[in-house]
Amino acid sequence: MAITRERESHELLLVSKRRPSPDCDLRLLCLPYAGGDASAFREWGAALPDNIEVVAIELPGHGQRMAEEPCRRMSSLVDVMAGACAAAIDRPFAIFGHSMGASIAIELASRLATVAERSPVHVFVSGAQAPHIERRSLQHVSREELLVELRRWNGVPEEVLANNAIIELFIPILRADFALVDTRARGPVRGGLAAPLTVFSGIEDPEVTDEGLKAWRQYTSGPFDLQVFPGRHFFLDSARSELLHEIGRRLVSWRFAQRSATRAALEPTETERCGR
Fold it and tell me: Less crowded by CB within 10 Å, the N or C end of the chain?
């Protein structure tokens, strides 16, 4: 592991999903969807440029931290995350979040910018409408309704949905995650994010609308763009290669711009050259 911390209540475990790289230029912090865990990003590191280190965030109650109590309040989770991420943001970083992870990502980015005074170089939100767009709460729906929703999202294999033992373990995790989403901030933090913000979506995703995707624009004072891929809610799996290409392209462009600016700053000005 590239980065670890002692496990305490609601403290984050940051797990590098590729061989640690002390020379990496940039870290990409990845936040999962409801019911998901850090393993969703296990193949990302190999598909991105070598100078980018992928760090997946394992939330309490998920994956390797299944035995821990999940967090049900967004503000509490983001408070802990802002401190736990300190080891990962000792160099330039970007943030990616899908679905539930998108709501966490935007709050974490704003919190780091305003409290830690460390802004991400880019924020990627995926498979989600802007947080202030109202949506149906799912934390209290019946088991049957929840299974209908899971089938509609087309992200859980049917053999898993048909396995009662697995579903009985999975549903409490989902309910906790839906409770977390229900406590999200309903608008951008005043004076918060200025980083570039990119929104990704699947063209057949039943969970989003064009209006809800474009509404992310008000969450940053920086550049904004929206890109749609083939697929449904879990296009991050079905269109993974295309998605990672676009993430890598944007981060490489940032690095190129940074290096160009550094070279320009080191070059003598016209007045300095004439005075020699």
Answer: C
